[in-house]
Design brief:
The complex is a heterodimer.
Chain A (H helix, E strand, L loop, with lengths): L26 E10 L4 E6 L11 E5 L5 E9 L2 E6 L3 H7 L6 E8 L12 E6 L6 H10 L5 E6 L8 H6 L4 E5 L6 E2 L3 H9 L5 E5 L2 H14 L3 E4 L15 E2 L2 E2 L6 E4 L2
Parallel strand pairs in A: 7-8, 7-11, 8-9, 9-10, 11-12
Antiparallel strand pairs in A: 1-2, 1-6, 2-5, 3-4, 3-6, 4-5, 12-15, 13-14
Helix pairs in contact in A: 4-5
Chain B lengths: L10 E3 L2 E3 L3 E3 L8 H9 L4 E3 L16 E3 L4 E3 L8 H15 L6 E5 L4 H12 L5 E5 L6 H4 L7 H11 L7 E5 L6 H10 L4 E4 L3 E4 L1 E2 L4 E2 L5 E5 L4 H14 L5 E4 L5 H9 L4 E4 L2 H5 L4 H14 L26
Parallel strand pairs in B: 3-4, 3-16, 4-7, 7-8, 8-9, 9-10, 10-15, 15-16
Antiparallel strand pairs in B: 1-2, 5-6, 6-14, 11-14, 12-13
Helix pairs in contact in B: 1-2, 2-3, 3-5, 5-6, 6-7, 7-8, 8-10
Classes of the chains: A alpha/beta, B alpha/beta.
Chain lengths: 262, 324
């Protein structure tokens, strides 16, 4: 790092903070593109990469004047975040467009890691938990595995992420609670069927805690390893404040992905 | 826990035995009995619960902590469940820690000396081993005004209120940003404090240049981590000079066994560990013990106690005098 690197023109403002021994302060990154996933979910594609980031990891997103909150990475090259507009911060984010700026620190947390010995992993996403599944599917395919994805939602309008998975060549099974798209019922039903038929040898899950607990029971019953990503409110994201504790586990550093051993 | 065989790292604080000098500092993971037990099982010599006040508090909104490069800055804002719930957490933690031989330190704060006394009365029912009065949080200025640690009179007023009802060792947590920390230490000891915890975080601010706003929601925060260590070492040195026979829990930026040795040589008996949990993970206590034992061994000593206050001697390590 040369001293001259600090004197950058204002036009390069998002790059004001150099990488390196300057800690992990929130970095301002411009939004390149905003894609609408459904009536309440947008995906923000940013103008930078996190080449070292792994699926399942999260970043802390800050909007000055609003709060800071954790978001799972939907992709790392470029950075993509899938965000449901449900609270003050996310609704403020939904008002942003290309050229606007988001502040990020991270990535943090324990990622998904490919289960060695698995050939046919089952990827399960509920609601906006689908966000990191395509990132994960790409990773698993890169090590020669053949993932199959299961996406569940309340109605047809809640189903997102199918196209990205299919573009990777991943078969996708959809369930909706009202039967308006795919199979009627919970996403765990077809997953259970696949496991019973011996068509899956590992489980990866992201979604509501109830769905994750059901997947943990399925993993136990069918004796397959499972990696489940537990959503939590994060304070520091550094394993210090204790706010993300879930049953004695600090989800920011010992999670969000936890492995269930059969 | 298993100790390095040839070196005795155990210490006592006012009669309370710690298997090693490393104390989980207040505010770091001390939010539940489960996490306190976890730190103890991972080898902490003692654990401090997160500071509790009389009533439940939510604390500040995110961002509450960031890593600015030379250390961390935080303004968590003393979130806690209130004294009554805290007493339940402490009682459960105490039950889990007792079989491990790891003492429990309760930490309290208040808006007035009377409130400190009320919180102390409630949490003491849980029978912690040591009570620490946090009179130096730099991040609740808007509600509580200047910390009691800012003046001798303020610090003494809290000790005078809590001392009469506290049958266990009473430690006072002091702030670094005062003109004469040794003088404040001497006054709180004269008022009845048994020990000193030094130091709390150092007030600071980090501004995001892109937005022109302070990064922390509370705007200012407390610096911790490596940048704080020389400040803490100097404060501990001054306190040890002012009250040489009073045990000090030296806290501030300790990340390695060498850092701990510095703190002990400055006069600390025990060593607080906080931000280092971020830098090295919660399983840092055993490596810290090994590193500290190596320093003790290097100096030809058998007990960590032998290093205490060495920096106050004119010639440093006495048995090396002739070699220098």
């Amino acid at each position: 790092m040369k001293a001259s690197d600090f004197h950058v023109p204002v036009a390069c403002a998002p790059r004001l903070r150099p990488e390196g021994p300057y800690g992990l302060l929130p970095r301002a990154l411009p939004i390149r593109e905003v894609c609408r996933e459904n009536y309440r979910i947008l995906t923000f594609v940013l103008d930078d990469d996190l080449p070292e980031a792994r699926p399942g990891q999260f970043v802390m997103v800050w909007l000055p004047g609003h709060k800071e909150a954790p978001f799972s990475l939907a992709y790392h090259r470029p950075i993509a975040l899938t965000v449901a507009g449900v609270g003050p911060l996310t609704k403020a984010m939904h008002r942003l467009g290309p050229g606007d700026v988001l502040w990020l620190r991270g990535p943090y947390g324990h990622p998904f890691t490919p289960e060695s010995g698995s050939q046919h992993p089952l990827l399960v996403g509920g609601g906006y938990g689908v966000a990191p599944l395509a990132f994960l599917a790409e990773h698993l395919r890169a090590v020669g595995q053949q993932p199959v994805a299961f996406i569940g939602g309340r109605t047809a309008e809640d189903i997102i992420g199918v196209a990205r998975l299919e573009a990777l060549g991943v078969p996708v099974f959809v369930t909706t609670e009202d039967g308006s798209k795919g199979e009627a019922g919970l996403v765990t039903h077809p997953v259970s069927r696949f496991l019973a038929e011996g068509r899956g040898d590992a489980l990866y899950g992201v979604g509501p805690h109830g769905m994750l607990r059901a997947l943990a029971r399925l993993a136990h019953t069918h004796r397959v390893p499972a990696q489940l990503s537990w959503e939590a409110y994060m304070g520091c994201a550094m394993g210090l404040c204790g706010m993300c504790e879930h049953d004695g586990v600090l989800l920011c550093v010992e999670g969000p992905v936890r492995r269930v051993i059969p | 826990m298993k100790q390095p065989a040839d070196v005795d790292l155990s210490i006592t604080l006012c009669g309370v035995r710690l298997p090693n000098p490393f104390v989980l500092a207040s505010g770091i993971l001390g939010t539940s009995e489960t996490l306190l037990e976890k730190a103890a099982r991972l080898g902490a010599g003692a654990v401090t619960a997160k500071s509790a006040g009389l009533h439940p508090r939510a604390g500040h909104e995110n961002p509450i902590v960031v890593d600015w490069g030379g250390g961390l800055i935080n303004a968590v804002g003393l979130p806690n469940p209130g004294a009554h719930r805290e007493a339940e957490v402490l009682a459960e933690a105490k039950a889990r820690l007792a079989p491990l031989g790891v003492p429990l330190i309760a930490s309290i704060f208040g808006g007035t000396p009377e409130e400190f006394a009320e919180v102390a009365r409630i949490v003491l029912a849980a029978r912690p081993d040591i009570l620490e009065v946090n009179i130096s949080c730099p991040n609740v200025h808007d509600e509580y005004g200047e910390p009691f640690a800012a003046s001798c009179a303020g610090a003494v007023s809290v000790v005078e209120a809590v001392r009469p009802l506290c049958p266990i060792p009473l430690f006072v947590k002091l702030a670094p940003n005062v003109p004469n920390v040794g003088r404040i230490a001497a006054d709180v000891v004269a008022a009845g404090a048994d020990g000193i915890t030094a130091i709390n975080t150092m007030p600071g601010m980090v501004i995001d240049v892109e937005s022109g706003r302070p990064v922390l929601t509370n705007r200012s925060g407390g610096l911790s981590g490596p940048a704080l260590k020389p400040i803490a070492v100097r404060c501990v040195y001054e306190i040890a000079q002012a009250v040489p026979d009073v045990p000090i829990i030296g806290t501030g930026g300790v990340t390695t066994g060498n850092d701990a040795a510095e703190m002990i040589m400055a006069g600390a008996t025990a060593v607080g560990v906080g931000s280092a949990v971020y830098y090295r993970g919660l399983d840092l206590f055993r490596p810290l013990c090994e590193e500290l034992a190596a320093v003790v061994r290097h100096h030809g000593a058998k007990r960590v106690e032998q290093l205490r206050g060495l920096a106050h001697r004119s010639h440093g390590v006495p048995w090396k005098e002739n070699k220098l």
